[in-house]
Amino acid sequence: MLVWTSSFVALVKELQDNFAEDKIGMLRMKESDNVWKYNIHFNTLAASTNWDLHALKWAYQCGLASRIKDEMAHLLEPKTLMEYHYKVLCIDNRYWT
Predict the structure, then answer these.
(1) What is the number of other CB atoms lying within 10 angstroms of the CB of residue 9?
(2) How many other C-beta atoms lie within 10 A of the C-beta of residue 59?
(3) 69 Cα distance to chain centroid
(4) CA nearest 69: which of 42, 43, 95, 44?
(5) Source organism's superkingdom (predicted)?
(6) Cβ pair 13, 41 in contact under 8 A
(7) Are 85 and 39 in contact (CB under 8 A)?
(8) Cα angle 39-31-72, degrees, rounded to a multiple of 5
(9) Inter-residue contact 59 to 24 (CB < 8 Å)
(10) Which of 62, 63, 66, 75 falls 20 to 30 Å from 28 in CA-CA distance?
């Protein structure tokens, strides 16, 4: 018997695990949004997936606003997701100041 069929908590976890991956793949940052808002949504969903850091980095960059993607195109590709977050934050901060 599957655990989630007899426990509501297990059912909720199973649903979050399965649908978080769909949501993170569809997450998009609006041009008028601050990257902090996008990062909060992204990190919340990322915590509920089983994706590795390479897949999360790909999903993160796909969902960024085009103004940030355009600036990132002029830089060396960050090696890690954390590096990517840092460079995106720097670009976004310059945009809003």
Answers:
(1) 9
(2) 20
(3) 14
(4) 95
(5) Eukaryota
(6) no
(7) yes
(8) 70
(9) yes
(10) 75
Residue 51 vs residue 41, higher pLDDT: 41
In this structure, what token pair is assigned to residue 4?
């989630």
Residue with tokens 């089983």: 50
CA atoms within a 13 Å half-sphere pointing along the CA-CB vector of 72 = 21
SS (H, E, C) the chain: CCHHHCCHHHHHHHHHHHHHHHHHHHCCCCCCCCHHHHHHHHHHHHCCCCCCHHHHHHHHHHHCCHHHHHHHCCCCCCCCHHHHHHHHHHHHHHHHC
pTM confidence score: 0.77
For residue 35, pLDDT over 90 is answered with yes
